[in-house]
Design a protein that fits this description.
- With about 100 residues, the protein is mainly α.
- The protein has 6 helices and 2 strands; from the N terminus they run H-E-E-H-H-H-H-H.
- The protein has helices at about 30, 45-55, 60-75, 75-85, 85-90, 95; strands spanning about 35, 40-45.
- Strands 1-2 form a two-stranded antiparallel sheet.
- The N and C termini lie far apart (about 30 Å).
C-alpha cells in the first residue's frame, strides 16, 4: 500500500467526459473505492483512474502493473471509459475494446 498526495496534475485534465480524470481532482471522491485493510475501510483511487495518471506521468512500470491487474482481475468498463483520455482509450483498445 502506498499513501501519497499528488498536487500537480501532470497535464491531466479533470474531466469525466473523456479527457482524463486526475486522481487528485474533484471527481475522485465520488469515484473512490473502499478497500478493507487491517479492519479499516480505506478510500482508494480506482486502478482505472490510476492508469490514466501513470500514463500521463510516463511511469511505464506502474502502467504495466495496473494493466496487468485490470486484465487479470477485471475492471469497471464505464469508469475506464471516463477515466482514460480519448488518446489513451485508442491506444489500449486491443486490451479493453472500444
Amino acid at each position: 500500500m502506498e499513501v501519497v498526495q499528488i498536487s500537480n496534475s501532470a497535464g491531466i485534465p479533470d474531466s469525466d467526459e473523456g479527457e482524463g480524470i486526475w486522481e487528485g481532482g474533484k471527481y475522485i471522491w465520488e469515484l473512490k473505492k473502499l478497500v478493507e485493510f487491517e479492519n479499516h475501510e480505506v478510500p482508494v483511487v480506482p486502478l482505472e483512474i490510476q492508469l490514466e495518471s501513470n500514463i500521463r506521468r510516463n511511469r511505464p512500470d506502474r502502467k504495466d502493473a495496473i494493466l496487468n491487474a485490470l486484465i487479470t482481475y477485471g475492471y469497471d468498463d464505464e469508469l475506464l471509459r471516463k477515466a482514460l483520455s480519448k488518446t489513451n482509450r485508442e491506444q489500449f483498445k486491443d486490451y479493453f475494446g472500444n
